[in-house]
Amino acid sequence: MLFNSLQFVVFFFAVTITYFMLPHKNRWVLLLLSSCYFYMFFVPIYILILVFTIIIDYFSGIYIEGAVGIRRKQFLILSLVANIGVLAFFKYFNFLNENLTFFLEQFGYKNHIPFLEILLPVGLSFHTFQAMSYTIEVYRGNQKAERHFGIYSLYVMFYPQLVAGPIERPQNLLFQFYEKHDIDHKRIIDGLKMMIVGFFMKLVVADRLGIYVDTIYNNASMHSGKSMALATFFFSFQIYCDFAGYSNIAIGSAKVMGFELMTNFSRPYFSSSVSEFWRRWHISLSTWFKDYVYITLGGNRVSISKRNINLMIVFLLSGLWHGANWTYVVWGGLNGLYLIIEGFQSFKGFSGLFKFMPTNFKKVFSSVFVFLLISVSWIFFRSENVSQGSDILVKILRFQGNIFYDSPTTLINCFLALFALLIFEFIKENGIEKILFLNLKNQFTKGAIYVLSVIYILLMGVFDGGQFIYFQF
Amino acid sequence: MRRQLEEVRILCIILVKFLLAVVFLDFVAGKALECMFFKQKSGAFHRANLAISETKAELLIFGSSRANHHYVPDILFNSLKMTNYNVGRDGCFIPYHYAVLQMILKRYTPKEIVLDVTPEDIYEDTNEYERLALILPYYNKHPELKPILELRSKFEKIKLLSNIYPYNSSFVTILAGYFNLNRKKENDLNGFIPLKGKIRISKPSKEEVRKLDYRKVNLLRDFIRKCKANSVKLIIVYSPNYKLTNHNEKFVESFVCYISEREKVDFLNFQDHKKFLDSDSLFYDDKHLNYKGAEMFSGLFVDEVMKINSK
Fold first, then answer.
1. What is the pLDDT of residues A389-417, one digit of tens each?
2. How far is B204 from chain A (nearest CA, A)?
3. Looking at the predicted complex, does its ipTM rise above 0.85?
4. Which chain B residues contact residue A455 at CB under 8 A?
5. Best mutation site among B155, B169, B172 for testing chain A: the one with the most A CBs within 10 Å?
6. pLDDT, tens digit, for every residue of B176-214?
7. pLDDT score of A419
8. For residue A354, what pLDDT is reported?
């Protein structure tokens, strides 16, 4: 079930209340069963995929710990192959087949491998990566193999982070399933607050902006450069709020029950460099790639040219992780390129472009410049294919025509949503404690803000797919 | 244990206070929005309110944007000598219009109703039932809408416990209509909105395989039978297209013709009318006539209606 649904709200409260009513030793059973139910809500049969990888990884972990020499590596490879194999089959089979067809056609051959009608299992990219981090950490000696099959299964399937992360590390999560979590009103309120913020980001901002973005991008050839620019600007925030919103709901719902998940987003659009952006954006994924791919390839301990190659490999793979399309690879490649350029010592990062400005202005201009660079890469992320992405970029650079809207209220709703988001993020980023006469540290003020947030969600949240921009050609 | 009970007590107090504050503000905001919604001075909500709650026109035009932009009221009045009002609404199809019909017939009985149909009135469309959100504000006064709203979601009744929910995403539009900020934009004439301009680019149509939505088909039948049960003369119309109809549209034509014959209502088909095909000067885009096209079509339409009425 989706987080932004009434079913999830009912599910969450039912599971949480039951969780605290149960004795500690039985809680893992409840969480495991409810996680199974949560997953099977999408496509029930796909739970077999999870069962398959859980069994492989559970035993691999035990055997890796008990084995010596080359055997340890063999069990690690078994686990990685199983997980990557499942991912490759369900997510990349048709993409690979399509490219094979194209390749063979260049030489006059035909590809006889049929395309499959496969529905992508939800959360596949997340739980396979989380499972792989377990066996890798056991192999590296940083994590003891989990002997309790139920607890290990719960580590992979824990419902708050099952479908959209954050991608956890076993050192951070596994031991928490053994801890007894008492009712702590402060922690529970903090968790619920995070969930409200998550729902706000998802329903009020992301889904609202998505209505305009989809209208423009789904008819890209019909729209002007200015419309494309605005849609791209909106998309930068849509994807952020969609992802970060889901993460906040996940982290908040886990926190209510006493589980601490890692921060996944940290106001990335305030970054004044691309490297800072990648320390703030999808932190669980970027650290996964850093720890298990970049460092394995040599990290920073190699020559500059090798390091740049490693960086590019990481970002190309990261792009591919996001989807089975060359557009994601281009997106990843662009970000890799930005980081390579930024890494040139003489360049001193993109903020070096504004070194003659006063500090405050330098920070603002750097952040805007980084935002623009990242937004250019989002064009490809959102486009159907690379060719469309290039056409859109050219259109934006030409910046011609009028901005499309069916009614002024469409854009007003979008900008109101953005304004609310930016105010909230600005306050958090700068640790502001007082606005005009309002003391933001005061409990009543904080409570009022969250009450008004819920009202704003009821008023402006997108609860259905029936909202549309009337656009007919 | 005592500490845990204390924590539960504190938590419950905080949550209850929070919920009470939300319920209170929801009630106040909801009532304010309801008041402003039913006092709209311009815009789509204003037109819908007029149609549902006020008009006593003898002839009503129902349908999507094609209905809304194709039937010129003065031409209808001058020829048919019937007061008329255009209930047509952009992006709204048979589920919406059946709901509106029920609300109107509860209040008065028009002499004639024209229903302008499109493929979306019988084919599946993932968002169509979501657009029933437009009739949520009327639910309190029209509990007969409950079966239709359940097509939207089985949780609709729970969501309607919130007073704000019926006005979700409409806040700015309601404010604009209440303060009459929409009045210059649309130039509506008895609900009819003329479109100015000529077709510039025709988007190549993709012929997709579409599936019949049997709930919509049943609603179309219910619409017809409701009119007959209230002795309202119903005419179903397929207004002109810019391009020759594709397979999907041809199917709709035959299907609606079949239903009309079975239910014994008149069906006027202007789908591939030669006066309109590929006539750039008559179309705003390839689905909608501009004002010049609407005038021409309205003239042809009233001629056919007069023949029907004289039988």
1. 999 999 999 998 888 887 888 899 999 99
2. 9
3. yes
4. 22, 25-26, 29, 164
5. B169
6. 999 988 766 556 789 999 998 888 765 565 667 788 899
7. 93
8. 65
Chain B residues close to A452, C-beta within 8 Å: 25
Strand partners, B123: B212
In degrees rounded to 5, what are phi and psi of residue B193? -115, 110
R_g over Cα of chain B: 22
Which of the residues A8, A190, A452, A455 would you substitute to probe the B interface, choosing the one with the greatest number of B C-beta atoms within 10 Å? A455
According to the model, what pLDDT value does residue A353 have? 64
The two structure tokens encoding residue A55: 């069994």
Low-confidence ranges of chain A (pLDDT < 70): 345-355, 357, 435-439, 465-473
B300: closest CA of chain A, how far (Å): 25
Convert the pLDDT of each residue in B87-112 to its tens digit. Answer: 999 989 999 999 999 999 999 999 99
Inter-chain touch A459–B132, beta carbons under 8 Å: no
**Mean pLDDT of the residues in chain A:** 90
Closest to B168 (Cβ–Cβ): which among A185, A448, A459? Answer: A459
Residues whose CB is less than 8 angstroms from the CB of residue A425 and which lie 6 or more positions away in sequence, other chains included? A267, A269, A270
Determine the longest span between alpha carbons in chain B, in angstroms.
Answer: 86
Residue A472 is predicted with a pLDDT of: 38
**Interchain CB distance below 8 Å, B22 and A454:** yes
- Say whether pTM exceeds 0.80: yes
* DSSP structure class, residue A292: I
Question: Model confidence at B167, in pLDDT bands (50, 70, 90)?
Answer: very high
- Best of A413, A443, A459, A468 to disrupt the B interface (most B CBs within 10 Å) is A459
pLDDT of residue A120: 84
Tokens of residue B58, six digits: 């003898």
The closest alpha carbon to B227, from B260, B269, B271, B268, belongs to: B260
* Contact (Cβ atoms closer than 8 angstroms) between residue A1 and residue A242: no
Task: Give the C-alpha separation, A248 to A84, whole Å.
Answer: 27
How many Å from the N-terminal Cα to the C-terminal Cα in chain B? 86
Cβ-based contacts of A463 with chain B (< 8 Å): 159, 168
Both structure tokens of B72: 């010129």
Question: Are B26 and A465 inside 8 Å of each other by CB?
Answer: no
The answer to whether A27 and A19 are in contact (CB under 8 A) is: yes
Coil/strand/helix, residue A90: helix
Q: CA–CA distance from A110 to each of A93, A105, A117 (Å)? A: 17, 6, 20
Out of B17, B155, B201, the one facing A6 most closely (by C-beta) is B155
Taking the C-alpha atoms of residue B39 and residue B87, their distance in angstroms, rounded to an integer, is 18
Structure confidence at residue B199 (pLDDT)? 83
The answer to whether B192 touches B73, Cβ cutoff 8 Å, is yes
Phi, psi for B239 (deg, rounded to 5) = -80, 170
pLDDT tens digits for range A115-136: 888 888 888 999 999 999 999 9
Cβ within 8 Å, pair B287-A454: no
How far apart CA A387 and CA A373 sit, in angstroms, is: 19
Parallel, antiparallel or unpaired: strands B59-63 and B112-116: parallel
* Minimum Cα–Cα distance from B158: chain A residue: A6
Q: Sheet with B233-238: list strands edge to edge.
A: B84-86, B59-63, B112-116, B233-238, B266-269
**Catalytic positions of A, please?**
322
Contact flag A454-B168 (C-beta cutoff 8 Å)? no
